[in-house]
Amino acid sequence: MTTRQQAAASTPQNLLLLALRLRTFVALILVLAYFSFMAPNFLTGANAVIVTKHVALNALLAIGMTFVIITGGIDLSVGSIVGLCAMVAGWLVLNGVDTGLGYTIWFNTYEIVALTLAVGIGVGFVNGLLITRLNVAPFIATLGTLYIARGAALLSSGGRTFPNLGGSEEFGTTSFPLIGTASVLGLPVMVWLLVVVALAAHYVSRRTPLGRHIYAVGGNERGAALSGVKVNRVKLFVYMFSGFCAALVGIIIASQLQAAHPATGETFELNAIAAAVLGGTSMSGGRGRVLGTIIGAFVIGILSDGLIMMGVSSFWQTVIKGVVIVLAVVIDQAQSRLQARVALAQEASANR
Protein backbone atom coordinates (compact mmCIF):
# COMPACT_ATOMS: atom_id res chain seq x y z
CA MET A 1 0.00 0.00 0.00
CA THR A 2 1.40 3.42 -0.96
CA THR A 3 1.69 6.35 1.39
CA ARG A 4 -1.22 8.06 -0.38
CA GLN A 5 -3.40 4.95 0.00
CA GLN A 6 -2.49 4.71 3.68
CA ALA A 7 -3.44 8.34 4.20
CA ALA A 8 -6.77 7.79 2.44
CA ALA A 9 -7.47 4.69 4.50
CA SER A 10 -6.66 6.47 7.77
CA THR A 11 -8.94 9.45 7.04
CA PRO A 12 -12.15 7.70 8.23
CA GLN A 13 -10.31 6.58 11.36
CA ASN A 14 -9.14 10.13 12.04
CA LEU A 15 -12.67 11.44 11.58
CA LEU A 16 -14.04 8.78 13.91
CA LEU A 17 -11.35 9.58 16.47
CA LEU A 18 -12.27 13.28 16.28
CA ALA A 19 -15.93 12.40 16.83
CA LEU A 20 -15.03 10.32 19.88
CA ARG A 21 -12.96 13.16 21.32
CA LEU A 22 -15.87 15.57 20.86
CA ARG A 23 -18.42 13.11 22.26
CA THR A 24 -19.09 15.12 25.42
CA PHE A 25 -19.85 18.31 23.51
CA VAL A 26 -22.09 16.37 21.12
CA ALA A 27 -23.89 14.74 24.05
CA LEU A 28 -24.45 18.17 25.63
CA ILE A 29 -26.05 19.51 22.44
CA LEU A 30 -28.24 16.41 22.13
CA VAL A 31 -29.58 16.49 25.70
CA LEU A 32 -30.21 20.24 25.46
CA ALA A 33 -32.13 19.79 22.22
CA TYR A 34 -34.10 16.80 23.52
CA PHE A 35 -35.26 18.36 26.79
CA SER A 36 -35.96 21.72 25.13
CA PHE A 37 -38.42 19.88 22.90
CA MET A 38 -39.85 17.47 25.49
CA ALA A 39 -40.06 19.94 28.42
CA PRO A 40 -41.16 23.39 27.16
CA ASN A 41 -40.16 25.16 30.41
CA PHE A 42 -36.67 23.69 30.40
CA LEU A 43 -34.93 26.68 28.78
CA THR A 44 -36.45 29.32 31.06
CA GLY A 45 -34.12 31.63 32.95
CA ALA A 46 -35.26 30.37 36.35
CA ASN A 47 -34.60 26.75 35.41
CA ALA A 48 -31.21 27.65 33.92
CA VAL A 49 -30.16 29.10 37.30
CA ILE A 50 -31.32 25.94 39.11
CA VAL A 51 -29.49 23.67 36.67
CA THR A 52 -26.33 25.76 36.94
CA LYS A 53 -26.38 25.48 40.74
CA HIS A 54 -26.76 21.70 40.56
CA VAL A 55 -24.01 21.47 37.95
CA ALA A 56 -21.65 23.61 40.07
CA LEU A 57 -21.80 21.13 42.96
CA ASN A 58 -21.25 18.10 40.74
CA ALA A 59 -18.53 19.82 38.73
CA LEU A 60 -16.56 20.75 41.87
CA LEU A 61 -16.55 17.11 42.97
CA ALA A 62 -15.77 15.92 39.46
CA ILE A 63 -12.73 18.21 39.11
CA GLY A 64 -11.14 16.60 42.15
CA MET A 65 -12.15 13.17 40.89
CA THR A 66 -10.56 13.94 37.51
CA PHE A 67 -7.14 14.46 39.06
CA VAL A 68 -7.48 11.19 40.99
CA ILE A 69 -8.56 9.18 37.95
CA ILE A 70 -5.79 10.65 35.78
CA THR A 71 -3.27 9.10 38.19
CA GLY A 72 -5.00 5.74 37.74
CA GLY A 73 -6.87 5.86 41.06
CA ILE A 74 -10.46 6.28 42.23
CA ASP A 75 -12.03 8.10 45.19
CA LEU A 76 -15.26 6.54 46.43
CA SER A 77 -15.24 8.58 49.64
CA VAL A 78 -16.10 12.02 48.23
CA GLY A 79 -19.84 11.73 48.93
CA SER A 80 -19.19 10.81 52.56
CA ILE A 81 -16.66 13.63 52.90
CA VAL A 82 -19.40 16.00 51.70
CA GLY A 83 -21.71 14.73 54.44
CA LEU A 84 -19.01 14.80 57.15
CA CYS A 85 -17.88 18.32 56.26
CA ALA A 86 -21.47 19.59 56.15
CA MET A 87 -21.90 18.25 59.70
CA VAL A 88 -18.59 19.77 60.83
CA ALA A 89 -19.65 23.18 59.52
CA GLY A 90 -23.08 22.82 61.13
CA TRP A 91 -21.56 21.79 64.46
CA LEU A 92 -19.17 24.76 64.49
CA VAL A 93 -21.94 27.24 63.65
CA LEU A 94 -24.35 25.90 66.28
CA ASN A 95 -22.13 24.60 69.07
CA GLY A 96 -18.60 25.91 68.64
CA VAL A 97 -15.90 23.80 70.32
CA ASP A 98 -16.31 22.91 73.97
CA THR A 99 -12.84 22.99 75.56
CA GLY A 100 -13.96 21.01 78.62
CA LEU A 101 -12.57 23.83 80.79
CA GLY A 102 -15.82 25.68 81.31
CA TYR A 103 -15.85 27.76 78.15
CA THR A 104 -16.57 27.30 74.45
CA ILE A 105 -14.51 28.49 71.50
CA TRP A 106 -16.62 30.11 68.77
CA PHE A 107 -15.43 30.77 65.23
CA ASN A 108 -16.46 33.28 62.59
CA THR A 109 -17.53 32.25 59.10
CA TYR A 110 -14.04 32.41 57.58
CA GLU A 111 -12.59 30.28 60.35
CA ILE A 112 -15.41 27.74 60.05
CA VAL A 113 -14.80 27.45 56.30
CA ALA A 114 -11.05 27.02 56.85
CA LEU A 115 -11.50 24.37 59.56
CA THR A 116 -14.04 22.44 57.49
CA LEU A 117 -11.80 22.49 54.42
CA ALA A 118 -8.98 21.21 56.64
CA VAL A 119 -11.16 18.24 57.64
CA GLY A 120 -11.81 17.36 53.99
CA ILE A 121 -8.14 17.70 53.12
CA GLY A 122 -7.30 15.56 56.14
CA VAL A 123 -9.54 12.72 54.98
CA GLY A 124 -7.92 12.97 51.55
CA PHE A 125 -4.52 12.80 53.24
CA VAL A 126 -5.56 9.59 55.01
CA ASN A 127 -6.67 8.15 51.66
CA GLY A 128 -3.32 9.06 50.18
CA LEU A 129 -1.37 7.50 53.05
CA LEU A 130 -3.33 4.25 52.85
CA ILE A 131 -2.61 4.04 49.12
CA THR A 132 1.01 5.19 49.06
CA ARG A 133 2.42 3.95 52.38
CA LEU A 134 0.36 0.85 53.09
CA ASN A 135 -0.12 -0.12 49.42
CA VAL A 136 -3.88 -0.48 49.81
CA ALA A 137 -5.72 -0.48 46.47
CA PRO A 138 -7.46 2.89 45.88
CA PHE A 139 -10.85 1.21 45.53
CA ILE A 140 -10.54 -0.52 48.93
CA ALA A 141 -8.89 2.41 50.72
CA THR A 142 -11.53 4.94 49.68
CA LEU A 143 -14.35 2.44 50.22
CA GLY A 144 -13.15 2.12 53.80
CA THR A 145 -12.97 5.87 54.35
CA LEU A 146 -16.42 6.16 52.75
CA TYR A 147 -17.85 4.17 55.65
CA ILE A 148 -15.64 5.84 58.27
CA ALA A 149 -16.55 9.37 57.19
CA ARG A 150 -20.26 8.55 56.93
CA GLY A 151 -20.18 6.91 60.34
CA ALA A 152 -18.43 9.93 61.84
CA ALA A 153 -21.09 12.21 60.33
CA LEU A 154 -23.84 10.10 61.92
CA LEU A 155 -22.07 9.97 65.29
CA SER A 156 -21.62 13.75 65.38
CA SER A 157 -25.35 14.27 65.87
CA GLY A 158 -26.72 10.82 66.63
CA GLY A 159 -28.17 10.75 63.12
CA ARG A 160 -30.08 14.00 63.60
CA THR A 161 -30.02 17.19 61.53
CA PHE A 162 -28.25 20.36 62.61
CA PRO A 163 -30.98 22.95 61.84
CA ASN A 164 -31.15 26.74 61.73
CA LEU A 165 -27.64 27.51 60.53
CA GLY A 166 -28.46 31.17 60.06
CA GLY A 167 -25.54 32.12 62.26
CA SER A 168 -25.11 34.62 65.08
CA GLU A 169 -24.11 38.27 64.94
CA GLU A 170 -22.25 37.88 68.23
CA PHE A 171 -19.88 35.30 66.75
CA GLY A 172 -19.70 36.70 63.21
CA THR A 173 -21.43 33.77 61.50
CA THR A 174 -24.43 35.51 59.94
CA SER A 175 -22.60 35.48 56.61
CA PHE A 176 -22.46 31.67 56.54
CA PRO A 177 -25.79 31.27 54.62
CA LEU A 178 -24.54 33.69 51.94
CA ILE A 179 -22.05 31.10 50.65
CA GLY A 180 -24.88 29.01 49.24
CA THR A 181 -27.54 31.66 48.58
CA ALA A 182 -25.88 34.96 47.60
CA SER A 183 -25.15 36.12 44.06
CA VAL A 184 -22.38 38.33 42.67
CA LEU A 185 -22.84 40.06 39.30
CA GLY A 186 -25.94 37.95 38.68
CA LEU A 187 -24.24 34.59 39.29
CA PRO A 188 -24.54 32.50 42.47
CA VAL A 189 -21.45 32.47 44.70
CA MET A 190 -21.14 28.70 44.21
CA VAL A 191 -20.75 29.24 40.46
CA TRP A 192 -17.95 31.74 41.09
CA LEU A 193 -16.30 29.21 43.40
CA LEU A 194 -16.50 26.66 40.58
CA VAL A 195 -14.90 29.14 38.18
CA VAL A 196 -12.01 29.80 40.58
CA VAL A 197 -11.39 26.10 41.31
CA ALA A 198 -11.71 25.15 37.63
CA LEU A 199 -9.26 27.85 36.49
CA ALA A 200 -6.77 26.89 39.20
CA ALA A 201 -7.09 23.18 38.36
CA HIS A 202 -6.71 23.86 34.64
CA TYR A 203 -3.59 25.95 35.25
CA VAL A 204 -2.03 23.31 37.49
CA SER A 205 -2.81 20.49 35.06
CA ARG A 206 -1.63 22.21 31.88
CA ARG A 207 1.00 24.75 32.97
CA THR A 208 2.94 23.37 35.93
CA PRO A 209 5.44 20.55 36.55
CA LEU A 210 2.98 19.08 39.06
CA GLY A 211 0.38 18.79 36.32
CA ARG A 212 2.82 17.01 34.02
CA HIS A 213 3.73 14.67 36.87
CA ILE A 214 0.06 13.83 37.46
CA TYR A 215 -0.32 12.75 33.83
CA ALA A 216 3.01 10.92 33.93
CA VAL A 217 1.99 8.88 36.98
CA GLY A 218 -1.27 7.86 35.29
CA GLY A 219 0.38 7.11 31.97
CA ASN A 220 3.23 4.98 33.30
CA GLU A 221 3.81 4.99 37.05
CA ARG A 222 7.00 2.93 36.88
CA GLY A 223 8.45 5.09 34.11
CA ALA A 224 7.51 8.27 36.01
CA ALA A 225 9.31 7.00 39.12
CA LEU A 226 12.42 6.13 37.13
CA SER A 227 12.43 9.62 35.60
CA GLY A 228 12.50 11.24 39.04
CA VAL A 229 8.81 11.97 39.66
CA LYS A 230 7.85 11.78 43.35
CA VAL A 231 4.95 9.40 42.71
CA ASN A 232 3.77 9.16 46.32
CA ARG A 233 3.71 12.94 46.72
CA VAL A 234 1.71 13.31 43.53
CA LYS A 235 -0.83 10.76 44.73
CA LEU A 236 -1.07 12.43 48.13
CA PHE A 237 -1.77 15.74 46.42
CA VAL A 238 -4.58 14.46 44.18
CA TYR A 239 -6.43 12.75 47.05
CA MET A 240 -6.03 15.81 49.26
CA PHE A 241 -7.32 18.00 46.42
CA SER A 242 -10.29 15.67 45.97
CA GLY A 243 -11.00 15.96 49.70
CA PHE A 244 -10.77 19.76 49.44
CA CYS A 245 -13.34 19.82 46.62
CA ALA A 246 -15.69 17.53 48.57
CA ALA A 247 -15.38 19.69 51.70
CA LEU A 248 -16.21 22.80 49.65
CA VAL A 249 -19.36 21.11 48.35
CA GLY A 250 -20.35 20.14 51.90
CA ILE A 251 -19.98 23.75 53.05
CA ILE A 252 -22.04 25.04 50.12
CA ILE A 253 -24.88 22.58 50.74
CA ALA A 254 -25.02 23.29 54.50
CA SER A 255 -25.02 27.01 53.74
CA GLN A 256 -27.65 26.73 51.02
CA LEU A 257 -30.05 24.65 53.11
CA GLN A 258 -29.09 26.37 56.39
CA ALA A 259 -29.10 22.85 57.80
CA ALA A 260 -26.75 19.89 57.86
CA HIS A 261 -27.81 16.24 57.67
CA PRO A 262 -25.43 13.26 57.99
CA ALA A 263 -26.89 11.65 54.84
CA THR A 264 -25.84 14.63 52.71
CA GLY A 265 -23.78 13.60 49.70
CA GLU A 266 -24.98 10.01 49.36
CA THR A 267 -24.20 8.67 45.83
CA PHE A 268 -22.48 11.96 44.92
CA GLU A 269 -19.38 9.96 44.04
CA LEU A 270 -21.29 8.28 41.22
CA ASN A 271 -22.19 11.60 39.62
CA ALA A 272 -18.60 12.81 39.98
CA ILE A 273 -17.19 9.68 38.34
CA ALA A 274 -19.82 9.86 35.60
CA ALA A 275 -19.00 13.51 34.83
CA ALA A 276 -15.25 12.86 34.73
CA VAL A 277 -15.50 9.78 32.52
CA LEU A 278 -18.11 11.31 30.26
CA GLY A 279 -15.81 14.33 29.94
CA GLY A 280 -13.05 12.17 28.47
CA THR A 281 -11.05 11.17 31.55
CA SER A 282 -9.69 7.67 30.98
CA MET A 283 -10.35 5.16 33.76
CA SER A 284 -6.98 3.58 32.95
CA GLY A 285 -5.26 6.88 33.79
CA GLY A 286 -3.03 9.30 31.93
CA ARG A 287 -5.74 11.21 30.06
CA GLY A 288 -8.34 13.81 31.02
CA ARG A 289 -9.07 17.54 31.04
CA VAL A 290 -10.83 19.88 33.43
CA LEU A 291 -12.87 21.51 30.64
CA GLY A 292 -14.12 18.12 29.47
CA THR A 293 -15.12 17.23 33.01
CA ILE A 294 -17.13 20.45 33.39
CA ILE A 295 -18.95 19.74 30.13
CA GLY A 296 -19.58 16.20 31.41
CA ALA A 297 -21.01 17.67 34.62
CA PHE A 298 -23.37 19.81 32.53
CA VAL A 299 -24.53 16.73 30.63
CA ILE A 300 -25.22 14.85 33.89
CA GLY A 301 -26.90 17.88 35.48
CA ILE A 302 -29.10 18.63 32.48
CA LEU A 303 -29.98 14.95 32.18
CA SER A 304 -31.00 14.77 35.87
CA ASP A 305 -33.04 17.98 35.88
CA GLY A 306 -34.62 17.24 32.52
CA LEU A 307 -35.77 13.80 33.66
CA ILE A 308 -37.26 15.35 36.80
CA MET A 309 -39.16 17.95 34.75
CA MET A 310 -40.51 15.15 32.55
CA GLY A 311 -41.74 13.31 35.64
CA VAL A 312 -39.45 10.30 35.18
CA SER A 313 -39.22 8.09 38.27
CA SER A 314 -36.13 8.52 40.45
CA PHE A 315 -35.58 4.77 40.09
CA TRP A 316 -35.32 5.09 36.30
CA GLN A 317 -33.05 8.12 36.75
CA THR A 318 -30.62 5.91 38.66
CA VAL A 319 -30.75 3.28 35.92
CA ILE A 320 -30.13 5.88 33.22
CA LYS A 321 -27.12 7.31 35.08
CA GLY A 322 -25.68 3.81 35.37
CA VAL A 323 -26.13 3.27 31.64
CA VAL A 324 -24.42 6.60 30.94
CA ILE A 325 -21.39 5.58 33.04
CA VAL A 326 -21.09 2.21 31.29
CA LEU A 327 -21.45 3.76 27.84
CA ALA A 328 -18.86 6.42 28.70
CA VAL A 329 -16.34 3.76 29.73
CA VAL A 330 -17.06 1.65 26.64
CA ILE A 331 -16.57 4.66 24.36
CA ASP A 332 -13.39 5.60 26.23
CA GLN A 333 -11.98 2.12 25.63
CA ALA A 334 -12.92 2.35 21.95
CA GLN A 335 -11.15 5.72 21.72
CA SER A 336 -8.00 4.27 23.33
CA ARG A 337 -7.91 1.36 20.88
CA LEU A 338 -8.52 3.64 17.90
CA GLN A 339 -5.81 6.07 19.04
CA ALA A 340 -3.33 3.22 19.27
CA ARG A 341 -4.30 2.01 15.79
CA VAL A 342 -3.95 5.49 14.27
CA ALA A 343 -0.61 6.01 15.98
CA LEU A 344 0.69 2.71 14.58
CA ALA A 345 -0.52 3.63 11.11
CA GLN A 346 1.20 7.03 11.32
CA GLU A 347 4.42 5.42 12.54
CA ALA A 348 4.37 2.90 9.70
CA SER A 349 3.76 5.70 7.20
CA ALA A 350 6.65 7.73 8.62
CA ASN A 351 9.05 4.77 8.34
CA ARG A 352 8.38 4.29 4.64
From TrEMBL:
Main location: membrane
Lineage top rank: taxon: Bacteria
Compartment annotation: Cell membrane
Pfam families: BPD_transp_2
Keyword Nucleotide-binding on entry: no
Record's keyword terms, sorted: Cell inner membrane, Cell membrane, Membrane, Transmembrane, Transmembrane helix, Transport
Record-annotated membrane-spanning stretches: 20-43, 55-74, 81-106, 112-132, 139-158, 178-204, 236-254, 290-308
Membrane topology annotation: Multi-pass membrane protein
GO MF terms, alphabetically ordered: transmembrane transporter activity
GO cellular component: plasma membrane
Protein name as it appears in the record: ABC transporter permease
Record organism: Paragemmobacter kunshanensis
